[in-house]
Amino acid sequence: MALFRRTIRAKGPDRFLVDLPDELREVLAEVCTEIDELLDGDDVTDHPALRRVFPPASPDDPAVQATYRELVGTDLLRSRRAALGRIAATARDTELDRATMETWMTGLNTIRLVLGTRLEVDGETMPELAPDDPDLPAWALYEFLGALVGWIVDALARTAD
Predict the structure, then answer these.
(1) Count of the separate structural domains present in the chain
(2) CB distance 142 to 81 below 8 Å
(3) Which domain holds residue 131?
(4) Which of 141, 82, 139 lies closest to 106 in space, CA to CA?
(5) Dihedral, CA of residue 75, residue 123, residue 88 and residue 155, to nearest 10
(6) Per-residue pLDDT averaged across 35-53, rounded?
(7) For the chain, what is the mean pLDDT?
């Protein structure tokens, strides 16, 4: 009987092996590029698909909201785009360092936030979908990314000081 092999596993305290099929690596790179293009719009903080990526600081107070956007909006956008770019650039790598693994967590969570908004996720479980449901691939990706983030967290935790 074959044992389940961890998708992300430590090679040392600061090196991690990434065991993903080439097809999933391609999907990761492509989705990162697509989300990055979405973040390239004029006022992304108001884009409906990005509302979970840029949650309002105070939806009932426009002045507080404007100040919040001014203070953190640009940095948040820059860090999200950098994380997505880093994943796209390293998606085909089989070995990553700790900083890149941490960046993957940020970028993968950004993708999940966008997908979750699109899919109107409001619970922890995937709904029952017919095999021909057009949302099935997006739900599968959403679930896979959640598992991948979990594997990353586990691998990082196993090697924490």
Answers:
(1) 1
(2) no
(3) 8-158
(4) 82
(5) 100
(6) 84
(7) 89
